[in-house]
Amino acid sequence: MGASAGGLEAFRQFIETIPYDSEMAYVIVQHLHPLHDTMLTELLSRVTKGFCCIC
Q1: What radius of gyration, in Å, describes the C-alpha atoms of the chain?
Q2: What DSSP line would sit under 26-39, residue for residue?
Q3: What is the sign of the dihedral through the CA atoms of 52, 30, 46 and 37?
Q4: Predicted TM-score of the model (pTM)
Q5: Which of 34, 41, 46, 52 is the most buried (most CB within 10 A)?
């Protein structure tokens, strides 16, 4: 799933619907300015019991 920086709310809504025991991996891609750091992992970790990481 991909979106620009304005897609955070859509990411949040999607993640909230995923059951903890789904045994699935999801890749979320956020388009950002190359000089800006992302806080996506921290923000999405607040709405899931699963594992979030930047790879």
Answers
A1: 11
A2: ---EEE--TTSPP-
A3: positive
A4: 0.71
A5: 52
